[in-house]
Amino acid sequence: SNIVAIVGRPNVGKSTLFNRMIQRREAIVDATSGVTRDRHYGKSDWNGKEFSLIDTGGYVVGSDDIFEQEIDKQVELAIDEADAILFMVDVEAGVTGMDEDVAKLLRKVNKPVLLVVNKVDNSMREAQAVEFYSLGLGEYYTISGMNGSGTGELLDALIEALPDKPEEEENDLPRFAVVGRPNAGKSSFINALIGEERYIVTDIAGTTRDSIDTKYDRFGFEFNLVDTAGIRRKSKVKEDLEFYSVMRSVRAIEHCDVCLLVFDATRGFDGQVQNIFWLAERNHKGIVILVNKWDLVEKDNRTVKEFEQMIRKEIEPFTDVPIVFISAMTKQRIFKAIETAVEVYKNRSNRISTSKLNDVMLPIIENQPPPAYKGKYVKIKFCTQLPTKYPQFAFFCNLPQYLRDPYKRFLENKLREHFNFNGVPITIYFRKK
Ligand code: GDP
């Protein structure tokens, strides 16, 4: 789907708008998986059109006294990575010098830019908003992030402005994205696979390379590798903005079928890596975890187990994700990593026939029915896998609203136990029958 970035100087209300736009969905995600949520990235939809939303402000450290330079950088990254940009200004503050700087960058952009004037809570402010014409970005949208007025019109305009993305990519080959934090070894891994120094790999985080996709065939199986390591515009971005790598990851994850999540074994499966993991999960992508730089780890016969346990604890309840221990440097198990991605790709397109599904699941449900909730007993009568690109299941019952998340997780675990969905997120719906 399309990527929309919200830019603007601090305190104009970016995150309020962001939260408003993703609220409904995000609430659902939180309720089902209980994951730490990444508040600066979310999926949103309006009139049935889905898009990803990024609040660039969230990625600036100490955003209260942010430097102008920092904002410019964010805007440039957003321009590079997003399909449309919401540029937010604040009617209370009026046109500021920083707004003018940002507008200057955005006027050159060949993508939809929507100027959003925030804090327009009354008609006087509506009148004040005209001064933003001076930014040279044309029509603007007035909203009140606080009470939500104007957001409907803004969303209508945004959806209208978003480019129509063809569902299919350039070819129908499976797409594997190599994602992870800067310096995890993504470029090295891809180099190792390709077997030639197509990319420059150095000790400096995120060095330059020149293409995104590499068509690859091994094992009689063709696929595309989507690399996030970095078309990094050296002159623009010097340091390691986490924001940058998240942008990159979002882009790559959106465009792939399976994510190879590379992390540096010497640094651990930290919060930032987990964020990328949940990004992939939320986007219903297959996942393989690659523990890289395995050559640097001092090992005994328990080390693998310990690593696995440590990771699986962080990704509950989605714990049947394959973990492969690799070294991009010594090439240890790098083909195993690809083989595993191929398996996950196949698992993702697993289709369970309705009769088989019911044969397995109905006795399980009978044996352990949903517990009473508010005095109501729910009877699940039937289930089916939906005909979608990734696994989604509908369970039909009399009172879907009385089924709780723990029972959903129970069903997910049983599905995982009886069918092979290793590495593949599963979505479960309860529907009224
Ligand atoms: P990227 O930013 O994720 O693309 O990371 P790079 O591929 O640029 O790797 C970052 C640094 O880690 C470089 O200095 C690599 O040589 C080093 N590196 C990558 N993979 C391995 C590995 O498996 N073992 C060791 N020892 N070093 C590695």
TrEMBL record:
**Keyword Nucleotide-binding applies:** yes
GO MF annotation list: hydrolase activity
Q: Which domain of life is it from?
A: Bacteria
For this UniProt record, the keywords arranged alphabetically read as follows: GTP-binding, Hydrolase, Nucleotide-binding, Repeat, Ribosome biogenesis
Keyword check for NADP, yes or no: no
Q: Where is the EngA-type G domain?
A: 2-166, 174-349
What CDD domains does its record include? EngA1, EngA2
Q: Cite the binding residues for GTP 2.
A: 180-187, 227-231, 292-295
Record's SUPFAM superfamilies? P-loop containing nucleoside triphosphate hydrolases (SSF52540)
- Residues given in the record as GTP 1 binding sites: 8-15, 55-59, 118-121
> Matching NCBIfam families, A to Z?
GTPase_EngA, small_GTP
Function, as annotated, reads: GTPase that plays an essential role in the late steps of ribosome biogenesis.
Task: Report quaternary structure and partners.
Answer: Associates with the 50S ribosomal subunit.
Q: Which HAMAP family match?
A: GTPase_Der
For this protein, the record's PANTHER family field holds:
GTPASE DER (PTHR43834:SF6)
The record's family statement is:
Belongs to the TRAFAC class TrmE-Era-EngA-EngB-Septin-like GTPase superfamily. EngA (Der) GTPase family.
Q: What is this protein called?
A: GTPase Der
- Which species expresses this protein natively? Sungkyunkwania multivorans
